[in-house]
Amino acid sequence: MRVNKVLRLALGLVDTVVLGACVDLVTGDLVVSVRPWRRASSRCGVCGVRCPGYDNGSGPRRWRSVDLGLLRVYLEADVPRVRCVTHGVVVAQVPWARHNAGHTRDFDQMVAWLVKNTSRSTVAQFMRVVWRTVGAIVNRVRADLDAAAGDRFAGVRRIGIDEISYKRRHKYLVVVVDHDTGRVLWLHPGRTKQTLGKFFNELGEERCHQLELVSADGADWIAEMVGLRAPQAQRCMDPFHVVMWAMDAMDATRRVAAKKARTEGQKAHSALLGPGCRFTLWKNPEDLNARQQATLADIERTNQDVFRAYLLKEQLRAVFAAGGEAGCELLDKWMEWAATCDLPAFVDLADRMQWYVDEIKNSLVHRLSNARVESVNTKIRLLTRIAFGFKSVEALMALVMLHLGGYDLRLPGRAMTNHPH
Question: N or C: which end of the chain has fewer CB within 10 A?
Answer without folding.
Answer: N
